[in-house]
Amino acid sequence: MTYEGLTYQNNEAVFQAQKEFSPEEKAVFTSLPPKDAKRKGRKVRLRPDWKQVKDGKGYLRYLYELDIILDKKYRKCIDKLNEGLRVYYGMLERAFSPNYSEALDGSVALAMSFGVPSGELLKTISEVDEYFMG
C-alpha cells in the first residue's frame, strides 16, 4: 500500500507511521510486518497533531476514500465475471442441447472460446459424419 509517497507492507504499518512527523521516521515502518509496526508504534513520541490525524483528517480519511474506490473496482470486477459466466453458461446450454444441430453449434462456439484452432474443429454434420464414419 502506498501512502504519501511511501510504500508499506500492510495497513498497520501505514497507521503506525502516521504517528511520526518526518518522512524519514515514517520510512522506518515501510518494511515492518504488522506485529512489529504496532510494537514500534507504541514506543514513538506522538506528533503534536496526532489526534486530528487519527480522528479522520489524515490516514483514516484516506482509508475511507480508498474503500469507496476499491468497492467500485470490486463491483466492476464482479459484474464482468458475472457477464462472462452468463456467456459461458449459455454456450454450455447450447453445447448440451438435445437438438443436435444446436449442440454442434454450441460445441464449436465453446471450443473456439477455449482457443481450439478453427482448422481442428468439426463444424458441420457432414464433417462429423466423415470423421466418425469415414
* Helix/strand structural class: mainly alpha
How does the overall form come out from the CA principal axes?
rod-shaped
**Largest beta sheet: strand ordering:** 1-2
Rounded Rg: 28 Å
Q: What fraction of residues sit in β-strands?
A: under 5%
Identify low-pLDDT runs.
Answer: none
**Mean residue pLDDT:** 90
Total DSSP E strands = 2
The proportion of residues forming helix, as a percent range, comes to 55-70%
Straight-line distance between termini? 62 Å
Q: What is shown here, in short?
A:
The chain is mainly α.
Characterization of this structure:
- This protein has a two-stranded antiparallel ribbon.
- Helices cover 66% and strands 3% of the residues.
- A hairpin with a 2-residue loop joins strand 1 and strand 2.
- It folds into 2 domains: 49 residues, no CATH class; 54 residues, no CATH class.
- With 134 residues, the chain is mainly α.
- Helix 1 runs parallel beside helix 3, helix 4 packs parallel to helix 5 and helix 5 runs antiparallel to helix 6.
- It is rod-shaped and about 85 Å long.
Key descriptive features of the protein:
single chain, 134 residues, mainly alpha, 2 domains, two-stranded antiparallel ribbon, 7 helices, 2 strands, 3% strand, rod-shaped
Topology:
Blueprint: E1 2-3, E2 6-7, H1 11-17, H2 23-27, H3 34-41, H4 50-57, H5 59-95, H6 100-113, H7 125-133
Antiparallel strand pairs: 1-2
Helix pairs in contact: 1-3, 4-5, 5-6
